[in-house]
Amino acid sequence: MKKIILSAFILLTIAGKSQEGQLAHLNSVSEELTHERYRTNLSDGKLTGSKSTTIYQIEIEKNIHNKVKAFSFVNEGTSNKDVNAGFSWLEPNHYTQPSLFYSYRHKMGYLYLNNIYYGLKISDIEKPENFKIEAIYIPKTAKPGTEKKAEGEKLSLKEKMAAAKQKIKDEIAAAEGGLPASINQIDHQKTITDYLVAMKEIQAKATANFSSEIKSEIAAIEQSKKDKNQKIKDVNNAYWASEEGQRVLRERRKNQGAPSFYTVVNNGSTPIDIGGNGWHETLNSGSKHEVNCSGDLYYKKLEGCCSWEDAGLITKGSDACGKTINL
Asked: What's the farthest any 2 CA atoms get from each other in the chain?
């Protein structure tokens, strides 16, 4: 009963404040605030997970109107990003009332609820309530899964004792690299689902009541995207029309008929993660994959929820063209 009441309280609070938890939170959060990341599994309604050794900071992205539109989670002290909003990879699913930020490239949605950033696997953005919790990010100063007491309200003796016990549980979990025990004081699946369903109605009402100013801002953003795409197209066309571009095209025509791919085969008994610049493939035992000769081939390892990093060169594309690479 306590868990259900808490979930309902969170939902009503967020819906009643017209989705303060996303844009308003990003507007107020300090970029110095650090976050711990956990890869998670949901079993019997409980989240379990292991903590990453990497600490993350938030980097805010703004649109052409200087309004917050998304964020990145950046490895503290480096430029490596676990959640990347660059190149429009992460976009809000509504201009004024987003319920989450979505990466079409990685099929991942991110939202902030109850002192937790959730990383959700969402295959269809039109049905965001169909999700899987893959990761969570907890602000290091926050106690996840709890709500603050009203200002001036004191804890009872029973609540103080419960808080002390909870602190011990959290410290033990942290020492073991697991999730804080307090994380499961709420039903995450139900809380997120109810929130996303409720937000659909809020978004519909907001869209129906867009002011002329908001409509103009949205139109300007869409035009900016079109202008950017046209500029890229113009630059590409200018290159292919240039002396250098024409030379490349002549070389390509001259090499027509020559091998343009090489094949990699997994002869082992376990899957192997391979890839190149911008792509990844899990090669199962006995399977094969064709790779363009213009690309080098690497072993890959997963960093964070959705970033596959190089873990060692397998072959240069120029050396392997037309050949079969056995792993």
From this structure: 84
